Amino acid sequence: MNDLYKLDLRKISIVSILFWGRSGTLFMGSLLDSHHSILTIPESVMSNYFDRDGFWKRNEMKSDYQLMLDAFCEEYSALFAEDFRYGAIKMGEFKAHMEGFITENEEFSRRSFFIYIHFSYALCLNQDIRRKSLINFQMHDSSVFTRMNELLRDFEDAKFIGMYRYPIRALHSHMRHHKDNINEYLDNGEFSKIYPLYTWLKKPDDEIDHLIPKSAYSYVDEVIDGQYLRYYTHQLTGWKKAGVQFDLNLHSVGLESLHDKPHETMESVADYLQIEFRDSLLKSTFNGIAYTSDKRSIQKIQGFSSDHTRMTKYQESFNEVDVYVINNIVSLLYPEYHHLKDESLERDSLIDLLNVPTKTESLAIEKTFG
Fold this sequence. Notes:
The protein is α/β, with parallel strands linked by helices. It is 45% helix and 9% strand. The protein is built from 16 helices and seven strands. α4 (91-104) crosses α5 (110-124) and α9 crosses α16 (359-369).
């Protein structure tokens, strides 16, 4: 028996971080990363693990755990890639630790396999696992109800941190993230990743490359192809819908408050998670490497910045009326946004304003109809 690999699986719990628009989920994950009681796999590499058609469902019928372990290493190969942003771990070492946990513990299930993955990853980083009992998991998108349902089947006591921020900034950042992704695919000639429209051409990407303009996808195009409606609708519900549907044990954190009052905000997070508050909760890192925001951020920052949370880039897509409307809608629905409410605004007047196209919608109408 190797005591290193023996776990009391009942004592391992999970906290999952949920976004409301682009609202700092990865930043929150980076603050939790180096706490002595928390296990983390960086960013959102494993966010699809609990999908109903995800890794476990596709591999659970394999004849032995070795085949499943091989399948995991292939599917999540980013963890072992030399160019992984937060340092690659060695696949052989990871497999050896996984085998140790699997053979020393009686349980082999989707839940236990998930736990073994995180402990093995920590050992590959030479972390002390003796005090670790909480997994920091980036579920990210709460709208995938099947994913949420499967996670709660395995971790009934799961806790959730719901991130939120000033609505129009969260919405615009979400739109910009999608736009930049699409343009990257366009520039790389990866057209099959973008539009079903291209599939009817039945030609390889390299044969239609000259037909598609580079970096041509805009905010206006998001309105035309329906992505804008999807993101706007999401901004009106966020993680609240999942919170009600699954009666989640959830602690909400405003991105602005996190940057303005980091010590106070992270103390409240520590109290909620029932972990000891330490200064490590004020350090933004993954695997000890500084987190400098993701590649789609307008500005690369490290750590806390009140100015960063108050940028006005959204004005390229929204005017003052657009901001006023969405602020008052969410302020009527959710306590997190009550401070944005205009007490003098009558409900009928808000309904009238809802019928006015936003700045981006107006530009889309103009582009479509001239």
